[in-house]
Design goal:
This protein has 3 helices and 3 strands. It has a 3-stranded antiparallel sheet. The radius of gyration is 26 Å and the shape is rod-shaped. The chain has about 120 residues and is an alpha+beta fold.
């Protein structure tokens, strides 16, 4: 009796299955890492929006610091996820408010470049 040797054997199937399983594990890890970083950024974006809203309530048409807004009572606390106080300011340019915050684990892009303008 002649066997058909044109198909895949059990060894080949197990090797391909192991490779696919390893690929899925690596992909799941990277998705988990990326998902965690998106949540952190969203948290800080909410803090930036909170700072912009308080500057709008103050009706600031120039740069104003978080400390000044807090002193005037327009914002309570600006704290990160670890309950550490953040620093920040809001700049106003061309009818647009832009918040810049500096926390222990996060700094808004352009924070230092725009701080002394």
């Amino acid at each position: 009796m002649k066997l058909n040797n044109k198909g895949w054997g059990l060894n080949t199937l197990l090797i391909i299955s192991a490779c696919l399983f390893l690929f899925l594990l690596i992909a799941a890890y990277y998705i988990y890492v990326l998902y965690g970083s998106f949540n952190n950024n969203n948290y800080y974006k909410v803090l930036e929006e909170k700072l912009v809203d308080s500057a709008k309530k103050y009706n600031s048409k120039s740069k104003i610091s978080y400390n000044k807004l807090k002193e005037l009572g327009y914002i309570n606390n600006l704290k990160d996820e670890n309950n550490n106080e953040c620093d920040g300011y809001v700049s106003y340019d061309n009818n647009t408010y832009t918040a810049y915050i500096n926390c222990e684990n996060y700094i808004t892009d352009g924070y230092y470049a725009n701080k002394n303008k």
